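Incident log, structure service

09:12 report received: a user says their structure output differs between two submissions of the same chain.
09:20 pulled the input from the user's history:
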Amino acid sequence: MRAFASKEKLQEQATACEDDKTLKVIYNASAYREEKDEDVRAFLKYVYTNDPGENGFSSRLSAIVENIKLSDFFRSQYAAMNLHDRDLIRWAKKEALAEGATQKAMEAAENFLKANVDAETISRCIGLPLEQVLKIKENLSVKA
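09:34 re-ran on a clean worker, output below:
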């Protein structure tokens, strides 16, 4: 994973220590899969996908964020910055991807049924519920 580090000296504040040993690290959150440290990878995944997963820190952070979203102040700021629209778009994309995956799985199940593969095997290998595969099989029988 590419991480960029920079060390800066403070120059504008006369009272600040010039070499305060501050180190900024910038991560590419979209490359979270490449991170070797499990905790950092989980955090970057949360930042990139908004999915806290099973990581304790990311889960706690997600709970805090969800709690903050309930405040009136946050809601007014949220609306003012049009974040609501961005979240709706993100949610719609996620739903569309899931719907597309289900549609592809159903098409694959239909093709396997046409090739005389048994419904239980199709269900187990594709991940569709057996009832759904049997329904597809029933629809194929009606068409024939």
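09:41 both user submissions now match this output. Likely a transient worker issue. Closing.
09:42 reviewer note: DSSP finds six helices and two strands in the chain. Residues 51 and 106 are 26 Å apart (CA to CA).
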